[in-house]
Amino acid sequence: MSKSVDQEILNLVRQEVTKEKGFKLLMETHQERVYQLVRRMVIIHEDADDLTQNTFIKAFKYIGNFEGQSSIFTWLYRIAVNESLTFLEKKKKRFFLSSDDHEEKMQNYLDSGILMSADAIQQKLQKALLSLPEKQRLVFHLKYQEDLQYQEIAEITETSVGALKASYHHAVKKIKEILTEE
Asked: Residues 54-113: pLDDT tens digits?
């Protein structure tokens, strides 16, 4: 997204009379990409909807603290990632699920065929992604599917570029193994 759109959003949300208009522009500009990120992390549509909404509620609450060190997009993604990771951890604890049980539950959801436009290849890729640790899945999504630069991903995840490159390399290697073994 361009710096001029970011600046327009910030100018609008920082004035009480135009705050709602600015927030509406923020949502129109970024909601779909935030939802896609969250959906790939949590798989289930209803959970992704809730977490996307939570992300924008937090953004609305804290936009006054936004310093402009990064783009609004990066800031929103950081909020969405944190919301998603927290949600997944709480879900595992609430249902006393081990990581394997949680992975199996999400794979069963994929098998049910309730994906937006899932064909067999997409479904197989989603299952392969579920086998990755959450951090590798996130890095893979941001690099491969969102086509972000490592520096942007580092800002979103608050991780070093070197660690991200290693996570991405391991994720790609695991995905290739899974996709070629059947």
From this structure: 999 999 999 888 888 888 989 999 999 999 988 988 877 766 555 555 566 666 655 555
Among residues 7, 147, 138, 156, the alpha carbon closest in space to that of 77 is found at 156
> For residues 103 and 133, what is the distance between their CA atoms, to the nearest angstrom?
10
The pTM assigned to this predicted structure is 0.69
Domain with residue 177: its CATH number is: 1.10.10.10
Q: At 107, list the tokens.
A: 């794979």
Measure Cα distances from 77 to 74, 122, 154 in Å: 5, 23, 11
**In which domain, by residue range, is 43 found?**
1-96
| Alpha carbons 178 and 124: distance in angstroms, whole number | 9
- For the chain, the C-alpha Rg in angstroms (whole number) is 17
Residue 52 makes CB contacts below 8 A (sequence gap 6+) with 31, 34, 35, 38, 80
Question: In Å, how far are 19, 85, 161 from 152, measured between CA atoms?
Answer: 27, 18, 9
In this structure, the number of other CB atoms found within 10 A of the CB of residue 71 comes to 16
% the chain with pLDDT above 90? 38
How many structural domains are present in the chain?
Answer: 2
